[in-house]
Structures are given as structure tokens and as C-alpha cells.
Amino acid sequence: MEYTESKSDGIIVLKLFGNLDMLNAGILKERIKESSNQNEHKFIFDLAGVNFIDSSGFGLIMSLNDKLTGQGGGLRIVNVSKTIRQIFRISKISSVIQIFESTEEAISSFP
């Protein structure tokens, strides 16, 4: 997995590319940990370049959301493929983590 990073209004936007699975989940976990040490707790994951997410990836998304929310921030998801969106809905992740059509909408959702 690879990602590009940008920042807007104090919110870190990570555009992810590849598979979010057991082999790659640690990369994101470490990136979030670095930001937490710098008091950055608001993230957007752009999943337009993600083809596959396994249970480790979903677990990571859930745990990161819990951690960031507990620190006064949160995690938003944008640009989700139809297939991954269905899995989010079936697994009830979409009832916990907000999914948006655009980065702008996700940014404006943060307090």
C-alpha cells in the first residue's frame, strides 16, 4: 500500500493506493501514531485507489476511528467503490464511520 498526503484546515487527507490488508495495515497505524504525537487527530481516508480491504483493514479503520474520536478528532472516509461501500454497509461500519462523496464534504463535517 502506498499513500499521498495533504493537509486542509488542519485535517490530514491520505489518498490510499493498493490493498488495505494485514500486510499493509501497519503503515497506516504508524502514520496515525506519528500524528497523534503532534496533536493531529482529524483524518480523511480517500479510498478511490483501494481495490481490496480485508478484515484487518476494516479492524484498523474501526480502531483508528475510536482512537481519534477519543482524542477529540475523528476519521472520515471518501471515494469508496460500490463493492467496498456494500461491505461497509453489511458490516455496519458505515453506521459508525461517516462516508462522504467528496473530500470537501468530509472536511466540512468536522467541528
List the helices and strands and how they pair.
Elements: E1 2-8, E2 11-20, H1 25-37, E3 42-53, H2 55-70, E4 74-78, H3 82-90, E5 98-100, H4 103-109
Helix pairs in contact: 1-2
Q: Would you kindly provide a brief summary of this structure?
A:
With 111 residues, this protein is α/β, with parallel strands linked by helices. The protein contains 4 helices and 5 strands; from the N terminus they run E-E-H-E-H-E-H-E-H.
Instruction: Label the overall shape.
Output: globular
What's the helical proportion of residues?
Answer: 40-55%
The Cα radius of gyration reads 13 Å
- The chain-level mean pLDDT equals 92
Beta-strand content estimate:
25-35%
Give the low-confidence spans. Answer: none
Helix vs. strand class: alpha/beta
Output the number of helix runs: 4
Say what oligomer this is.
Answer: single chain
- The string of secondary-structure elements, in order, is EEHEHEHEH
Q: Distance N terminus to C terminus?
A: 30 Å
* Strand line-up across the major sheet: 1-2-3-4-5
Largest pleated sheet = 5 strands, mixed
Describe, in plain words, how this protein is organized in 3D.
Helix 1 packs parallel to helix 2. The longest helix is centred in the middle third of the chain and has 16 residues, at 55-70. A five-stranded mixed β-sheet has the order 1-2-3-4-5. The protein is built from four helices and five strands. By secondary structure, the protein is of the alpha/beta class.
Characteristic key phrases:
alpha/beta, five-stranded mixed sheet, globular
